[in-house]
Amino acid sequence: MRMYDLIQKKKMKEALTKDEIFFLVNGFTKGEIPDYQMSAFLMAVCINGMDPDETTALTQAMAMSGDMLDLSAIEGVKVDKHSTGGVGDKTSLVLGPMVAALGIPVAKMSGRGLGHTGGTIDKLESFPGFSTAISTEQFVENVNRTKMAIVGQTANLAPADKKIYALRDVTATVDNISLIASSIMSKKLASGSDVIVLDVKTGSGAFMKRYEDSLSLAKAMVQIGTRAGRKTYAVITDMNQPLGKAVGNTLEIMEAIATLKGEGPNDLLEVSITLASYMMLGAGKAATIEEARRLLYQTIENKSALDKFAEFIRAQGGDSEAVYQPDSFEKATLSLLLPSPKDGFVSYIHTDEVGMTSLVLGGGRETKESIIDLSVGIIIEKKLGDPVKQGETLAILYANDQDKLMQAKDRLAKAFVIDNKQPKRNPYVYAIVTEQGVTEYDR
User: What is the pLDDT of residue 347?
Assistant: First the structure.
């Protein structure tokens, strides 16, 4: 095979075979195919697209380019959840303990935050001593014993995806559904779970701003997972405002704990329950979504999910005292109220700007080397559709640096739009995508 011929084939809108796709992925990963030829191929894909067979083959080739996590030693049907990223998205911290409390093994590989989206690992490091840098053997042992473990992504997980994405980022070839879907799903296939539930965000704080694009991505990922032999579901959820009220690592941990106690915000609980229901359905632990929801609510009522969260923290070296006494978390030294400039309704929130405000405070990363201040962040007091009076608090900012606090206040003020007309409230969940089709809810 020659890379020149494969570029020509895709340029002429012809489909590549599985062997051809594995050839180009493996060749590029090993450095045998130069950047300029892969760039030409990626541009041809952006212009002419890939069919489902090609997209699945690309995903599998990237997944198999590095470590494939072997979870066969874990008893039962392994489940995992992946989010496309958002602001205030702490669902893994809520649904993981609920599902694990019902005896379903949650074997999750998570990443750190970069830019305006937060990372699950960063949030968990709010617990002193907690570590995701555990061996595969310890990971498997923890899941078998406590039914839940979260580990950091290995350096050699889907290396082809890392190398291809770096090229896409500088050649204007990011915005293609097949390339986006295969990038996400290659890491999920390499992570080894039997059931994959995808939380596809849509709105002002999401990677996909338009619902139609989010739906296309969800369909593509479900199709890839199904073709690869994994039970795969996608839930399209709202990111036109932060999920819950808390934005910032320790603040989000505290909100997750409150939710496990039955005291959390409705949107966070509903999205978490919906995602967890499909994890249970895929694992065969519930015959219907209604049964799954009933069982999940019971784990909150009887505190088994809260206890499971504490057990999970201890199993990975963390001090679990704060699960039962959240006031023991380290606090920011400064706080500031953001007042509404006028009477009206919260008609729009630039959600990505809320995330960037947290980054300005020190709660996120501008580069991979940035050190995060876990205690800073934002509490959103008014959400979309809420009435507000002039001077009433829209949000509370928490900081440890006065200059950063004032910069963040100015930025956050621009994120809220106050209008005289009350907007229609967005649903928490827009659609469910399964191999059988799409179920859409009233938008």
Answer: 97
